[in-house]
């Protein structure tokens, strides 16, 4: 094995819960093959640390304030393609899993994963493979093996949303940032923010994670069947 191959993977841990974040950092500090170089309390800080430290991998929680894990993953993969993302979250539901993978995450683990499993996932994504927990692998296989029933298109957008507000909602569910939505729709970012404020007010939503769950719950989008 070469000296380069023996170097530990440089990791940033992102989780908004201090006790969880510190626990992960402490756990990884006891294991060979990884070196924790930074810890972030939200997605915004994770993006900043990636820009400063250029880690190999970010262990990314999904539901965080300011900037959630899906948005942070999308930004990191777009702006710093040399850094891979492994999601480490409590949730393995479709509304969490598929947006994260669409945003560019190469690995997805739940927080019941052991230290050895986390290290394996880190090195798997650095080798070009997927770092998925067994439960997530089963979920993906189920989606690939069982065809999704065709959902009838709703007669009208729910909760009084306009057609444009619904378009913005679907693009949020697809993991796009405000800037990307503005480019896609050929409008200003200020206009996008206005649409988001309006749709949040009409639906009672508070953040982008809730918007993703809402879009799935209303049948506006479905996870890919394959």
From TrEMBL:
<keyword id="KW-0805">Transcription regulation</keyword>
<dbReference type="InterPro" id="IPR016032">
    <property type="entry name" value="Sig_transdc_resp-reg_C-effctor"/>
</dbReference>
<dbReference type="InterPro" id="IPR000792">
    <property type="entry name" value="Tscrpt_reg_LuxR_C"/>
</dbReference>
<keyword id="KW-0804">Transcription</keyword>
<dbReference type="InterPro" id="IPR001789">
    <property type="entry name" value="Sig_transdc_resp-reg_receiver"/>
</dbReference>
<dbReference type="InterPro" id="IPR039420">
    <property type="entry name" value="WalR-like"/>
</dbReference>
<feature type="domain" description="Response regulatory">
    <location>
        <begin position="10"/>
        <end position="126"/>
    </location>
</feature>
<dbReference type="Pfam" id="PF00196">
    <property type="entry name" value="GerE"/>
</dbReference>
<dbReference type="InterPro" id="IPR058245">
    <property type="entry name" value="NreC/VraR/RcsB-like_REC"/>
</dbReference>
<protein>
    <submittedName>
        <fullName>Response regulator</fullName>
    </submittedName>
</protein>
<dbReference type="Pfam" id="PF00072">
    <property type="entry name" value="Response_reg"/>
</dbReference>
<dbReference type="InterPro" id="IPR011006">
    <property type="entry name" value="CheY-like_superfamily"/>
</dbReference>
<feature type="domain" description="HTH luxR-type">
    <location>
        <begin position="154"/>
        <end position="219"/>
    </location>
</feature>
<keyword id="KW-0597">Phosphoprotein</keyword>
<feature type="modified residue" description="4-aspartylphosphate">
    <location>
        <position position="61"/>
    </location>
</feature>
<keyword id="KW-0238">DNA-binding</keyword>
């Amino acid at each position: 094995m070469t000296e380069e191959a023996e170097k530990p993977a440089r990791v940033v841990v992102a989780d908004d819960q201090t006790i969880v974040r510190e626990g992960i950092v402490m756990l990884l500090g006891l294991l060979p093959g990884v070196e924790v170089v930074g810890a972030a309390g939200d997605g915004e800080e994770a993006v900043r640390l990636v820009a400063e430290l250029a880690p190999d991998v970010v262990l990314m929680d999904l539901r965080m304030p300011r900037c959630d894990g899906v948005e942070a993953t999308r930004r990191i993969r777009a702006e710093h393609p040399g850094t891979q993302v492994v999601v480490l979250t409590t949730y393995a539901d479709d509304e969490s899993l598929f947006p994260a993978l669409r945003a560019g995450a190469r690995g997805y683990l739940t927080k019941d994963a052991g230290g050895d499993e986390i290290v394996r996932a880190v090195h798997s994504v650095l080798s070009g493979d997927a770092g998925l927990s067994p439960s997530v692998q089963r979920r993906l296989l189920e989606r690939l093996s069982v065809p999704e029933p065709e959902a009838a298109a709703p007669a009208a957008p729910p909760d009084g949303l306009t057609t444009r507000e619904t378009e913005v909602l679907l693009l949020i569910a697809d993991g796009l940032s405000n800037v990307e939505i503005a480019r896609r729709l050929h409008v200003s970012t200020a206009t996008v923010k206005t649409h988001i404020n309006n749709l949040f007010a009409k639906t009672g939503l508070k953040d982008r994670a809730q918007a993703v769950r809402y879009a799935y719950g209303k049948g506006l989008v479905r996870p890919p069947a394959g």
